[in-house]
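Batch manifest, entry 17 of 40.
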Amino acid sequence: MSGGLRAVGRLLAAGWLLARYDALVPREFTPLLPAPLRGPAGLLRLVSGPQARRGRPGERLARAFEQLGPAAIKLGQLLSTRADIFGEEVAQDLAHLKDQLAPFDHAVAVAEVERSLGKPLSALFADFGPVVGAASLAQAHAATLLDGRKVAVKILRPGVERRVALDIAAMELAASMAEGLGPTVRRLEPRAFVAAVTRSMALELDLRLEAAAASEMGEIMARDSFMSAPAVVWDGVAKRVLTLEWAPGTPLSSPEALALPGLDRPLLATHVIRAFLAQALDHGLFHADLHEGNLFVEAPVRLTAVDFGIVGRIGTNERRFLAEILWGFIQRDYRRIAEVHFDAGYVPRSQNVDDFAQALRAVGEPIFGRRARDVSMGRLLGQLFEITGLFDMHLRPELVLLQKTMVTVEGVARRIDPDSDIWDAARPVVERWIRRELAPPARLQRLAERGVRLLERAAERIEAEPIPPAPAAPGGASWTAVGFAIGLAAGALVLALMRR
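Output type: structure tokens
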């Protein structure tokens, strides 16, 4: 069977399963459909059983996604950030998606480790223990190295790559079909959204890339005291196997974690927020799956993150976008927030900046005068998307992972300390970024660097495509050469002064 036919078959099977769970066109949404579509929607429910129909629409959709497997679970986790489209209740239900499965056989795991690492188990491990966690993509084993260090060994499930490839092909087909439904759906960029899922899954299916992400994140986290990462054991890394030092402490998902003697819960909640913002703003790289199961805690405030299969990367514009939006709302400077959207290209230039600032005011003003713990930073960013249709803004897939992580981190912080002041925790990190990146010296340095780059490109162009000589300057040199030399020297001088 060709790849296209397999994708069609997979898509039809997914549709059937969604219909079985009354999640394809949920009964609660039938009254919203045009009259001609209500009858066919009702027929779909004939294939669902009473057990499958129980619960809210989001709960049924989450159960269907769990049945469909890893790609659908990943899609559901990203969709959970779009409360503006699906509603707060559905988004919360999808946010609880889990992918815990029964483990595969221990002997299969041992064989995979030996095949992937090209050596017998005894050459690396003094002990290779039982499964400590099994998900849809991989499972983890506790083990001990020959030097006595305790480690966690992650192994991909047999055949998981083929299943994910089929799921992604089906999602790509569904996204292409969805874009034909009209401009409203096209504005949500379904193909770009699926591409974001695809990139994330590709990284998770090569554990060498996760090892690199864990190593890079460990270096970044070491620059602040908010969070740390286990060291990578590179001798135990291959495409389908990853070995990390054992994370110290208690999983934050365990009931006893928040009852640890000497735990400083308010400061711990603050560290969770500041760790994420410092990663995103200062480095443009952040752990994008910071739920309680991936965080280990020791008293008084030590946090260790694990599972680096999903990391987010944001560019300079996106970092500025995040920092200035948060700072603008803290300062109630709606005009500045609007200008940032226009400068970053998130709002088309055909729109009016004052009208957009007015819409932002409608989002921001209701939060003032309320207790900080009642104001959700993640929900605030979500509300920004609610006004996107009025200003012809398209979904930015690179920001979806950022918003998803912010919502998750905020939820973790508030579960650690219900009185956590998210805005107060964010302020020092955002202020630090604003002072460093937007102060006049920083802007002057960036201007000088940009000037040097432009001059270097101009020099390369001149060398590649000789141009007729310009009129000679006194002394025989051309004005072009003189001007170029002066500009290059000036740019280099400014840059040197700024780096002193």
